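# step 3/5: fold
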Amino acid sequence: MKKIITLLMCALFAFSCSKPDLPLDYDDFPSLFILWEDVFKQKEAKYYVYFYSNQCYYCQQIKEKLLIIIKHATTPYYLLSYNEAIPIAEDVDQTIGASTIEQLWFGGTPSLLEIEMNAVTKNILGVQKISDFLFY
């Protein structure tokens, strides 16, 4: 009887200590947050900047898959949260080659920048285009 009670207590303890797999959140990556003025100040030769808003419906659609990629990526990703100081405009293709924030804008959220050698090589707008780029 003592063995059964001990076994049950061990099982209960193990069960209560196990963590469920919770969905990833942006806050799980605090070292990856950057400010708008730091977009071109990262040390890597190639990196990505994901521009999002917590209130963006489309950002929420891609969030879990994107954060899994970020967690396992060999190329660094940085997170840039929307604020009103960040310019939003059309024709993001005109930002290809930008190397300063004065030359850069986003089409909206979500957006993904690819930066190589301190210049924008891709400025991808929208959940579908980002998904196509990341997952295919």
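# step 4/5: annotate
DSSP finds three helices and four strands in the chain.
# step 5/5: archive (pending)
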